[in-house]
Task: structure prediction
Amino acid sequence: MNADKKIIIDELLERVNKSPYVLVMDYTGITVPQFSELRDELRAGGAECHVAKNTYMRAALSEAGLPDISSELNGQTAFVTGEGEVTSAAKAVKNFAKKAESVKIKVGILDGEVIDAAKIDVLASLPSRDELLAKLLSVINEPGTSILRAINEKFGNAGGSADEATEAAAE
Result:
């Protein structure tokens, strides 16, 4: 193998190994400014978009021991990888595909499993990890907040002191 090709494949292999996901899309018909816009949006979510020859990516995926998606690696193909959340990358790609109608999400690999375009679409609709943690925290805090409101209502309106409310809560 040509030394230059090996360098490119090794770089792709490094990106694939660092990322828990690879999203593959057809970028036929988009302009350079549009592609730059996509890259900026992906970068904000901790992802990157790269264009490489399909044969190089096949070789990198094979060396990484990932599933064979070579049937989807044809035409003008861009690859999204990253160390951030897959949901933010999927959202960025989905939103971009809506703007640039010629862009098509082909397939992806998530944690070593092949996912189709429909599953990538579902990932794009999920809330981020931070949003899910915030919802979980609000659910956890709700019982304590309800008890505090009840105590404040009982003792706050009845002229009781804060000390009495604290004592009641301790009981």
Remarks:
- Residues 130-170 form one domain.
- Strands lie at 21-26, 47-51, 77-82, 104-110, 113-116.
- Helices lie at 3-18, 32-44, 54-63, 86-99, 117-125, 129-157, 162-170.
